[in-house]
Design a protein that fits this description.
The complex is a heterodimer.
Chain A: E1 23-29, E2 35-40, H1 50-71, E3 94-99, E4 103-108, E5 114-119, H2 127-142, H3 156-168
Antiparallel strand pairs in A: 1-2, 1-5, 3-4, 4-5
Chain B: E1 4-10, E2 16-21, H1 30-49, E3 59-64, E4 68-73, E5 79-84, H2 91-107, H3 121-132
Helix pairs in contact in B: 2-3
Classes of the chains: A alpha+beta, B alpha+beta.
Subcellular location (chain B): Endoplasmic reticulum; Golgi apparatus, cis-Golgi network; Golgi apparatus
Keywords (chain B): Endoplasmic reticulum, ER-Golgi transport, Golgi apparatus, Transport
Protein name (chain B): Trafficking protein particle complex subunit
Chain lengths: 170, 141
């Protein structure tokens, strides 16, 4: 097995089992909105092609961050106009939202890396899990000298470790 | 009793028809509340499009650092959402009750025009009482 990327083809994740697999998909974006990683485990419904889906997801997150910063009911400081870009960590940020069919958990690092994990709606608080996934990203991607920042992640070891970890989340 | 910061009602086109503030620190003027309501309408629709399985009805709960936003959408597309303290309980019951007040005091008002801002005194009075009441009593309804 070749370590630290190099292989252009990542192995497909194993077929999801009926029980114990609560992850639907995962995205990683950098601060410019480039999708560094899209990982899918269980997604029966597809309404857009891959590129449009990723752009729509980033737009949703950007707008929700702007909305929560504007809506922050505990801060009396003057907030800028809606849609004004926010520095990472600036203002009130959301960490998850839930619908009747899925739950989206969100984490943004101070360098602007956004990690999004979509799971089934009864998943608990995943903030610590996303921090661990960010640690995996640092260990297997950022520390990989062959990886160019800003390019899509093609690192087999990261994918394998990520799949194993997400399978255990419940 | 958990704090409720504000309540919004949006019509099916995304226009704000009711906004009540119960004590946010930062003041939000009329234009800002209109923009926030319209933006929430769009975000709610986009979240349906991004669902990995079919049958998604949109965001029910948005959890942020300093608040939770609970949203209820009626079958006709009217959205009720409340901004509360993180971890506040019984917000779903409160929104269902607000929906009852909306049907009783707004829709049954012969002078109310659909999709227009709500200016019904009885609705205001009963809503204020509901928000101040102990929410556990809603569970028995």
């Amino acid at each position: 097995m070749q370590f630290f990327g190099g292989s252009e083809i990542s192995p497909s994740p194993p077929a999801p089992t009926a029980s114990g697999n609560n992850g639907h998909m995962m995205y990683v974006f950098n601060r410019n909105g480039v999708c560094l990683l899209y990982r899918e485990w269980n997604r029966p419904l597809r309404t857009l092609d891959a590129q449009q889906d990723q752009k729509l997801m980033f737009g949703l997150l950007f707008s929700l961050k702007s909305l929560t910063a504007k809506m922050d009911p505990t801060s009396a400081v003057e907030k800028g106009n809606l849609g004004m870009p926010q520095l990472p960590g600036q203002g009130c940020s959301f960490h998850s939202f839930r619908t009747n069919t899925y739950k989206l958990s969100f984490m943004e690092s101070p360098s602007g890396i956004k990690i999004i994990l979509v799971t089934h709606p009864r998943t608990g608080d995943l903030r610590e899990s996303l921090k661990y996934i960010y640690n995996l990203y640092v260990e297997y991607v950022v520390k990989n000298p062959l990886y160019t920042p800003g390019s899509p992640i093609r690192c087999e070891l990261f994918n394998t470790t990520l799949d194993q970890y997400v399978r255990g989340i419940s | 009793m958990a704090a409720i910061y504000s309540l919004y009602i949006i019509n099916k086109s995304g226009g704000l028809i009711y906004y009540k503030d119960y004590g946010s620190a930062g003041r939000m003027d009329t234009n800002d509340s209109l923009r926030v309501a319209s933006l929430w309408h769009s975000m709610h629709a986009i979240s349906q499009q991004l669902s990995p399985v079919s049958g998604c009805l949109g965001i029910e709960l948005l959890q942020a650092d300093t608040f939770d936003l609970h949203c209820f959408q009626s079958l006709t597309g009217t959205k009720f959402f409340v901004v509360s303290e993180p971890g506040a309980q019984h917000m779903e019951s409160l929104l269902k009750f607000v929906y009852e007040l909306y049907t009783d005091y707004v829709l049954k008002n012969p002078f109310y025009e659909m999709e227009m801002p709500i200016r019904c005194e009885l609705f205001d009075i009963n809503l204020t009482q509901a928000v101040q009441k102990d929410h556990v009593t809603f569970l028995g309804r």
